[in-house]
Design goal:
337 residues; alpha/beta; Spore Coat Polysaccharide Biosynthesis Protein SpsA, Chain A; 2 domains; two-stranded antiparallel ribbon; 10 strands; 17% strand; elongated; binds uridine-5'-diphosphate; binds magnesium ion
Length: 337
């Protein structure tokens, strides 16, 4: 289940750390130093070997510079930088794929997920031999009304799609065992939505309840457009139900038209032919609308099939600190000469 040693990419085989912490980071110049200041003592205090994988999702502010500075004093920090902004889930993918630990925790960079809970997750997973520990949001009091309502609707719908396996209000703050990580890595998904895929795995799991805190600095990078995208990805990833909805809509409109046809014929036999053009017009608009909705639904799926066929990677890594040739440490072969 656990790999004893893994190549860090620099030619040396290091023993795998016990814990990896994956942090997707996008334009977090204000939040990042605060997050690190709170996270580091907690991880140091755990008493196990750990690594932190910071995925810089193509930040355009001072984030990369700050990360390099932090790394100089904190060698456990590994920096992976994307060539451009590729999104939160892509950053999570890169982190999960590159993390080497026996356990992998993913956490946001803005301290909305309290890092202290990592200790609880880790202990719970170890004591009870769990593969997944979800961070479940007990209270969203600090989120805006809009965010709470849209999130509520999202989780309601997702539980309908994935089933009761999926804990309510569990986002991307969670712990995965090596077995769960390897299972996720083996999936061919192109737009993975981890909060659905992880419960879908069905591994034995536990929960740690936490209060979602206010963002420590900066502002959200999840505007409505990204939220809609995540919701669409989630639905189409897990269900063909919308396609069936198209069938039902089509069927309904067919029945309505059939009734209208009978009505029109009756009107014709009674000699009143001129009135009724408005119902005809409405019928036309209705059918037109239904057809467009159905074409749009097909488009959503075909678009995804198309990008799956193209098989383009979800991100490009421009830089990985673990792949840097360490200047101060010559390779073993150089010693041999
Ligand atoms: N994030 C990212 N790429 C993006 C948007 C966000 O890596 O394109 C990161 C961000 O830095 C943070 C996490 O994903 O660590 C969650 O984003 P955010 O806090 O903006 O979302 P919210 O908590 O408001 O849903
Ligand atoms: Mg946040």
């Amino acid at each position: 289940m656990h790999n004893a040693a893994a190549s860090a990419g620099d030619g040396t085989a290091r023993p795998a750390p016990v814990l990896s912490v994956v942090i997707p980071i996008y334009n977090e110049q204000e939040a990042l130093p605060l997050t690190v200041a709170r996270l580091r003592p907690i991880l140091d205090g755990l008493g196990v070997d750990y690594e932190v994988v910071g995925i810089d999702d193509g930040s355009t502010d001072a984030t990369p510079v700050i990360m390099q500075k932090i790394r100089q004093e904190w060698p456990e920090l590994r920096i992976v930088r994307f060539a451009r902004n590729s999104g939160h889930q892509a950053a999570l993918t890169a982190g999960i794929h590159r993390a080497l630990g026996h356990y992998v925790v993913s956490i946001d960079a803005d301290l909305q997920d309290p890092p202290e809970k990592i200790v609880d997750m880790f202990t719970l997973a170890r004591d009870e031999d769990l593969d997944i520990v979800y961070g479940v949001r007990g209270d969203r009091g600090t989120d805006t009304f809009f965010k709470r309502r849209t999130a509520g609707a999202y989780y309601w719908l997702m539980r309908k799609l994935v089933g009761k396996n999926m804990p309510n209000q569990a986002g991307d703050f969670r712990l995965l065992s090596r077995a769960a990580v390897d299972a996720l890595k083996s999936l061919p998904e192109h737009q993975p939505v981890y909060r659905l895929l992880v419960p879908w795995l069905g591994f034995n799991s536990g929960e740690v309840v936490y209060v979602r805190e206010e963002r420590v600095a900066g502002s959200t990078h999840y505007p409505l457009s990204k939220m809609i995208r995540l919701a669409l990805d989630s639905i189409t990833n897990f269900s063909a139900a919308p396609l069936r909805l198209a069938t039902w809509l089509g069927l309904t409109s067919f029945l309505v038209c059939f009734a209208l046809a009978i009505y029109t014929t009756l009107q014709y036999t009674f000699g009143s032919t001129v009135p009724g053009w408005s119902s005809l017009f409405m019928g036309m608009l209705f059918i037109g609308g239904v057809q467009l909705v159905c074409v749009g639904l097909l488009g959503e799926y075909i678009g995804r099939i198309y990008s799956a066929v193209q098989a383009r990677p979800a991100y490009f890594v421009g830089y990985d600190s673990a792949e840097e040739a360490p200047a101060a440490q010559p390779r073993a072969s150089e010693y041999a000469a």
